[in-house]
Amino acid sequence: MITGLFETHLKVADLARSEQFYGELLGLQLAHRDEARLTTFYWLGGLGEAMLGLWQDVPENIQLQHFAFRSTVQNVLEAPTWLGERGRVGRNFLNDGTDQPMVFGWMPALALYFRDPDGHSLELIAMLDGPPQPELGVVSLEQWNKAQAR
């Protein structure tokens, strides 16, 4: 019955500001804008693949959420620079003050986090080749590669 996640929705305080962030800054493809309902939808991964809906609401009704954008390993590695060029700061899962992507050994996947203008936690994530190694926990890519070489 279920073959994937098709859409997710976020409440935002300022739809125009969020459109600038998601559409212009991140480069998501506009799917539809409904000015009567103060909503905007973006395609993720191309027409009909997945969708992000933004709904303007009063700040008191916004509950911070998290979701991840599927990416490639190369793009996640380039994300700290890409985000910096857009005035955003990446952070790793440990939130230890660095912007170097980390590997989740149980998946395995490489990930980096950042925030949107409302404070929602966004993630760029890419699956890695090789079998899961949950015993490694969350490690740097360098540590992951060393473990794979053994």
Automatic annotation (TrEMBL):
Question: Which Pfam families does this UniProt record tie to the protein?
Answer: Glyoxalase
Q: Which residues form a coiled coil?
A: none
Q: Which InterPro entries match?
A: Glyas_Bleomycin-R_OHBP_Dase, Glyas_Fos-R_dOase_dom, VOC_core
**In what residue span(s) does the VOC domain sit?**
4-127
CDD domains for the chain = VOC (cd06587)
Recorded protein name is VOC domain-containing protein
